[in-house]
Specification:
0% strand; 7 helices; mainly alpha; 98 residues
């Protein structure tokens, strides 16, 4: 079964690539090596084709020397609202997204 590529996965991968990796001068190969994955896997993360797990995102944040929240700062509300919790009514968006 093929997973759908979500806007939030694409945005998160883009933040890894443009928001931090390139700023530090890391190549895909260098970051991939530090994560213990092939550079092709890192490309999939950065393009949003594969989702970053919470533990992998934690590893990325440590390597890139940022808090995990860095990856979610300034996330557009329209993307945040695509969260499964938001789509299926598991949270009160007025309380959590204001």
């Amino acid at each position: 079964m093929r997973r759908l590529q979500t806007q939030s996965s694409r945005r998160l991968g883009g933040v890894v690539r443009t928001g931090r990796r390139t700023l530090l001068g890391y190549s895909q190969e260098k970051l991939a090596s530090k994560l213990g994955v092939k550079f092709q896997q890192l490309q999939k993360y950065e393009r949003g084709r594969n989702r970053l797990s919470a533990s992998r995102l934690w590893d990325v944040s440590r390597i890139l020397r940022v808090d995990v929240n860095f990856f979610y700062e300034d996330m557009p509300l329209e993307i945040a609202k695509q969260s499964p919790r938001m789509m299926y009514g598991d949270c009160d968006e007025d309380k959590e997204l204001d």
